[in-house]
Design a protein that fits this description.
Chain B: This is FtsW/RodA/SpoVE family cell cycle protein. The complex is a heterodimer. Chain A is an alpha+beta fold. Helices cover 37% and strands 17% of the residues of chain A. Classes of the chains: A alpha+beta, B mainly alpha.
Chain lengths: 477, 439
């Protein structure tokens, strides 16, 4: 009998140990893990519906563009339920995104501000019980509806039917327009969801401006040019004899249509888009120097932006050989960039070598009327004003010398790019430009997917229209 | 005369004195009686959920809850009158039920009302079981009957079972879905106790020569049961059976090598099952990393974790959280729902109530003079403990999810009925401690 009881006591002690273990674990969970878990460790927060089911109690804020147009607003349906209305349908969709199924675009990245969810403190929980918080913050964007519409229309009317345009103020980083085509109608996302998700070909939910990763092609020569000018002591001469082809690391590199440019300096190299020039000097500079310049341009580096985005890729990877350094130098290697990133590169050249932090939300206005304004901020000191202005001047020559982006009476600086993706007929067409060159107020990056026409011919005219519109609308003044 | 003067004296109390006397009242007289505390808890909790659901308020609902409060109060008073045993058992069960039904009603009012009916049915069964056990003698001699009962439950399940929530163990009787495995658990405890303590059932029959294989036969039968649960995909019951089985080996003084061997065998079996059954692999994967597939496979447990973290130590307050976002929140995931709105502290309270229940069960077991009921009390206590630990550990992601219910708390008829039957057994074991079956 006593023997039984002894053993029963052992079993009981074991169970008590387990019970107390659970009690202790609950304390540990609440103190150490609860905060991370509730946000899904930052990654899976959209599965925590507690963040987005409140919508009938809290009215999500209104989003205005810089012209005071309502871009997104909360309305009530016949059942008294709140819903988000997007008056511009697909035009603003790449920026606003949608709000169902976890959301995208601003609706996702500014969800907390729009719903006026404050940082979690013990006091804020108490306040929620007392204060009636039924309205979110309003947002004012830096975008201009006319520019946004022009950009979307331009993309729609191309043969490629797929692409992106980013237009920004090079001096502040404020985004004027951010287009991604094909787009979707955020008012009908719920009803068309299955269809939208099934269509991988169009990928309309992808914001190509921030999430499209493209081979840059010749527009990347601007970056390489920066590296060359910053390190003139490390190259034999800034002037080379371009014979149309060159052998580097066992790989034969040739110019477009094997064009022979003979005596070539940097200006001529940009105007003629000489692959040989950049390949030769890049091979002399070596990967380390080039990688550092690319890094300063924030290609392949994380930076903060108001919309969800993917990181670009710096092509100068560890252990890269000379042949790959050469191809990467003119944008044909492993480098992948987003249109936003290329617009930032153009802005840097147009802003005397200073890269500004891009932003799209200009003001956050609380229900009480408190305004939080975004102040322009330097993201990276890429290069000196002298070097930036020299490249900008060379780019003016590029446009003047028979580019489709040429505008009579306005000094436009630009560079085209035709990035081969599969073969010569399958190309991503690029154009980056800034104007007026003496005091740039707009920088623009255009990319057309799988166009096959050539950067200057297809993307150049789009950049031109964007610049004309920006100047006509007096942007950046 | 004296009473009168006392009353006058009370009137003279200043407001401040009355305020200060509130605290002292708690420890004095009436309120110290747990039945009264329970009564107040029920009045406040049920009042809150009814107020929370005021748009759908009907007199009928109010009457149901009033009836429950009265029934609980009366039942707890009756227990003290008819038995000299442990009258805390029913109090603890009633408290657990009260916490559970408050949350169930708050999430799905119709289930809350059904749960109260199951509860009253369970209470009746509690007394029925108690009186049946009290009315007959010789419970330890029915070994074969318990065994047949266990197998019968399995056979009925195999013949009529439907697929529900990932397991093939629900039998539909007259429109009510019922898990017979809940009854099998109690029969198994009785079977173990009588098998170990009574070998008369083999004596004097043709089977007597097999007596030397008794231990092996015991293991074989137990593993057949556990294997059957595996086939029904009822992992929770398999683990519970195995726990009771291992405890029996330990208590009945089996060789340490045999116990170790059984545990190793179980581990090998678990690993083999992992490779054979895809659903076990899934459970394991979800446990290791639910975030790998947060939208589908890991959805349940992730919603559970969200609920746990949303509540904090004190909870969001009844009606202020969103426990309805957790799948099957009223049965399998009742615990995170309770924690979200009533807080981690209430969650700990639930654990503590179970610990007290298990403690009293073990106390009864140790005081019981009859070895048969000693083990029955022990087995039932282990059942309660393991169910609570498995389920709460599961929703906390400490161990893989097994998909069983928390006794008295979760929504569900079969769980409520079998839990009260177990409690009735325990009640009997406590009241007959100095009984006539001294060995």
């Amino acid at each position: 009998m006593e023997k039984f009881n002894k053993k029963i006591l052992i079993v009981f002690s074991f169970l008590v140990f387990l019970f107390l273990g659970l009690v202790l674990y609950m304390t540990y969970f609440q103190i150490a893990k609860a905060k991370d878990v509730s946000t899904g460790y930052g990654k899976y927060g959209q599965y925590n519906k507690r963040y987005w089911v409140d919508e009938n109690k809290v009215k999500r804020g209104t989003v205005y563009d810089s012209q005071n147009n309502i871009v997104v607003e909360t309305l009530k349906d016949s059942n008294g339920n709140n819903y988000r209305n997007f008056p511009f349908d697909d035009i603003y969709a790449p920026i606003t995104g949608y709000s169902i199924n976890g959301g995208s675009g601003l609706e996702k990245s500014f969800g907390k501000q729009l719903l006026n969810i404050k940082e979690d403190t013990p006091l804020s929980d108490l306040k929620k019980l007392v204060e009636k918080q039924d309205e979110g913050n309003n947002l004012v964007l830096t975008t201009n509806y006319k520019m946004q519409k022009v950009a979307m229309d331009l993309l729609e009317n191309t043969e490629a039917k797929k692409g992106s345009i980013v237009a920004m103020n090079p001096k502040t980083g404020a985004i004027y327009a951010m287009a991604s085509y094909p787009s979707f109608n955020p008012n009908k996302v719920a009803e068309n969801w299955d269809e939208i998700i099934a269509d991988n070909e169009s990928a309309v939910l992808l914001n190509r401006a921030t999430q499209g990763l493209y081979v840059p092609g010749s527009v990347f020569k601007v970056v390489t040019a920066t590296s060359i000018l910053e390190n003139t002591d490390k190259v034999e001469s800034l002037v080379i004899k371009d014979e149309g082809k060159i052998k580097i690391g066992g790989l034969e590199i040739s110019n477009i249509e094997n064009m022979v440019n003979n005596r070539t300096d940097l200006e001529k190299a940009l105007v003629k888009s000489s692959n040989v020039y950049f390949a030769k000097l890049a091979a002399e500079l070596g990967a380390d120097i080039l990688r550092e310049t690319v890094d300063k341009y924030y290609i392949g580096k994380e930076f903060e932006f108001d919309l969800p985005m993917y990181k670009s890729k710096n092509g100068y990877v560890d252990g890269i050989d000379d042949a790959n350094i050469a191809t990467t130098s003119f944008g044909q290697g492993d480098t992948l960039v987003t249109p936003l990133n290329m617009a930032m590169v153009m802005s840097t050249i147009a802003n005397e070598g200073k890269m500004m932090q891009p932003f799209i939300v200009d003001q956050i206005i609380s229900p009480d009327g408190d305004i939080t304004k975004t102040e322009p901020k330097v993201l990276s000191e890429v290069t000196t004003p002298e070097i930036a202005n020299e490249i900008l001047g060379d780019m003016v020559s590029v446009v003047r010398d028979g580019s489709k982006a040429y505008i009579r009476g306005i000094k436009v600086a630009g560079k085209s790019g035709t990035a081969e993706i599969k073969n010569k007929d399958s190309t991503n067409d690029w154009f980056i430009a800034a104007a007026p060159a003496d005091d740039p107020t707009i920088a623009v990056a255009v990319v057309l997917e799988d166009s096959g026409i050539g950067g200057d011919k297809s993307a150049g005219p789009l950049a031109k229209v964007m610049i004309q519109n920006a100047i006509n609308n007096g942007l950046g003044q | 005369m004296r009473i009168k003067s006392k009353a006058r004296k009370k009137q003279k109390l200043s407001l401040k004195e009355r305020f200060l006397s509130i605290g002292t009242n708690l420890t004095s007289g009436k309120l110290r009686d747990p039945a009264t505390l329970l009564l107040w808890f029920q009045i406040f909790a049920f009042g809150l959920v009814l107020a929370n659901d005021r748009e759908n308020f009907t007199l009928k609902k109010l009457l149901v809850f009033v009836a429950v409060i009265v029934v609980v109060y009366v039942a707890n008073k009756v227990v003290t009158k008819i038995t000299d045993g442990d009258n805390y058992l029913l109090l603890i069960a009633s408290m657990l039920f009260s916490i559970g039904v408050t949350m169930i009603y708050r999430i799905t009012p119709t289930e809350g009302i059904k749960q109260t009916i199951w509860f009253i049915g369970g209470l009746v069964l509690f007394f029925v079981v108690y009186f049946i056990l009290k009315s007959f003698r010789g419970w330890e001699n029915l070994t074969i009957l318990y065994l047949i009962g266990c197998f019968a439950m399995f056979i009925i399940t195999l013949l009529f079972a439907g697929y529900n929530k990932g397991a093939y163990n629900w039998v539909s009787i007259f429109g009510f879905s019922f898990q017979l495995s809940e009854i099998t658990k109690i029969l198994y405890v009785f079977f173990i106790a009588s098998y170990q303590l009574n070998d008369k059932f083999l004596r004097g029959t043709k089977l007597e020569k097999y007596l030397k294989y008794k231990d092996y036969l015991y293991m074989l039968i137990s593993y057949i049961f556990i294997g059957m649960f595996f086939l029904q995909r009822d992992l929770g019951s398999a683990v519970i059976f195995f726990s009771v089985y291992i405890v029996s080996l330990f208590v009945f003084d089996y060789d340490k090598k045999i116990i170790a061997g059984n545990i190793i065998l179980a581990l090998i079996g678990a690993v083999a099952a992992y490779f054979i059954f895809p659903h076990i692999q899934t459970r394991f994967e979800i446990w290791i990393d639910p975030w790998a597939d947060p939208g589908y496979k890991g959805y349940q447990i992730i919603q559970s974790l969200f609920a746990l973290s949303a509540g904090g130590f004190f909870g969001t307050g009844l009606g202020l959280g969103q426990p309805n976002l957790i799948p099957i929140a009223t049965s399998d995931f009742i615990f995170p729902a309770i924690v979200e709105e009533m807080g981690i502290f209430t969650g700990m309270g639930v654990l503590m109530l179970f610990m007290i229940l298990v403690y009293r069960g073990f106390k009864i077991s140790m005081e019981q003079q009859s070895n048969f009921f000693k083990f029955v009390a022990l087995g039932i206590s282990v059942l309660f403990a393991v169910q609570a630990i498995l389920m709460i550990g599961g929703v906390l992601k400490v161990i893989p999810m097994t998909g069983i219910t928390i006794p008295f708390v979760s929504y569900g008829g079969s769980s409520m009925v079998s839990s009260f039957m177990s409690l009735g057994v325990l009640q009997y074991c406590s009241s007959d401690i100095k009984g006539r079956m001294v060995d």
